[in-house]
Amino acid sequence: MIWVDTIIQGILLGGLYALFAAGLSLVFGVMRLVNLAHGDLIVMGAYLILVLVTLLGLSPFVAVFVAMPLMFGLGWALQRFLLNRTLGDDILPPLLVTFGLSIALQNALLEGFSADSQRLPTNALTTASVEIGSITLGVMPLLTFASAVLVIVGLNQLFYRTEIGRAFRATSDDATTASLMGIKPANIFATATGIALVIVTIAALYLGLRANFDPNIGPARLIYAFEAVIIGGLGSLWGTLFGGIIIGVAQTVGAAINPEWQILAGHLAFLIVLLVRPRGLFPRAND
Amino acid sequence: MITRRKLLKSTAASGLTVAAGGLAAPALAQGAKIRLGYVSPQSGPLAAFSEADQFIIDGFLGSDAGANFEVIVKDSQSNPNRAAEVAKELIIDDEIDMMLVASTPETTNPVATTCEAEEIPVISTVAPWQPYFIGQQGNPGDPGSWRPFDFSFHFFWGLEDVISVFTAMWNQLETNKSVGAIFPNDGDGNAWGDPNVGFPPVLDAQGYTLTDTGRYQNLTDDFSAQINAFKAANCEIITGVPIPPDFTTFWTQAKQQGFNPKAASVGKAILFPQAVEALGDQGHNLSSEVWWSPSHPFASSLTGQSAGDLANGYEAATGKQWTQPIGFVHALFEMAANVMGRVEDSRDPDEVAAAIAATELSSIVGRIAFDGAGLPPFAVQNVAKTPLVGGQWRLKDGGGYDLVIVDNSDHPNIPTGGTMEEIAS
Question: What pTM was estimated for this model as a whole?
Answer without folding.
Answer: 0.85
